[in-house]
């Protein structure tokens, strides 16, 4: 049974929260892809998001392993399922079956606090399964005969370039068989890539959390998802506090990226300088008011570009339903509430542009001229 994909909520009448973005329940421009680009280009801390994604992938790997194990029990002993015996119930109840919730921080559990979450039940099962394998006489033979898995040799494909059609990108693919060694390799990869001092993409965590994870994996031999719960919650809270508010300001209240805003500011200031130079030249050369109407063009361009920089919003693009992923790379706004919000801000921004433009142009067009 495959895990159902998260369905974006098109009826949301509010801004999304970070958990909804990470769970792929939102649409552009506040989707996970946009958040990844923001963390990479603006926050310069994409390693934290990659850590979250890798831990989530580790959770998906564990769920797939348990699903395959459950399916193998049913296929290998069909009489257990048919008989409905007490032994059948004991065999199947040890394997968690409700594995369809998106992975998230422990603070977002959908179960009451007194009940174990499905993630906790999954981790408990994997710990029990691991202990039973350690005590098995054939364990040493299995470990010696198993070679390095592809998961341990190759890093997780980048979120920006993963091919969704490949078996590696879809843990539910029938061709993608998960062994217990894959789970172990996945846990070690997360540890060695992000957590150990001097690692390739080291993230900053408290020493206590780091010591607990290192001891659990290297000394206790654990590889269940619960090992990373404390680190995952810490990273989630850090992104929610330091990065996500800026992401919402940039994507839900604006539709421009930083390079585009800087270009608009520079061009706007140059246009404003040219407009003032032209205006004073026409006034002090005593040109007619009809000729001075040409200053409307540079003033309009300057005020529009400077207002776009100030509001982080291009009102014409917003009304057309477009936003920027990266510099000069536009895409459609699909989140309904964000579309409404940007339309309101675009109309307000255009109103201020018209008011300031009309006032400025009238002032310099109707002022009496005097030839020096």
UniProtKB/TrEMBL annotation:
Region (Disordered): 79-177
Domain RGS: 187-257
GO BP, one annotated term: intracellular protein localization
Biased composition (Low complexity): 163-175
GO CC terms: plasma membrane
Swiss-Prot/TrEMBL keywords: Membrane, Transmembrane, Transmembrane helix
UniProt-recorded name of the protein: RGS domain-containing protein
Record organism: Cryomyces minteri
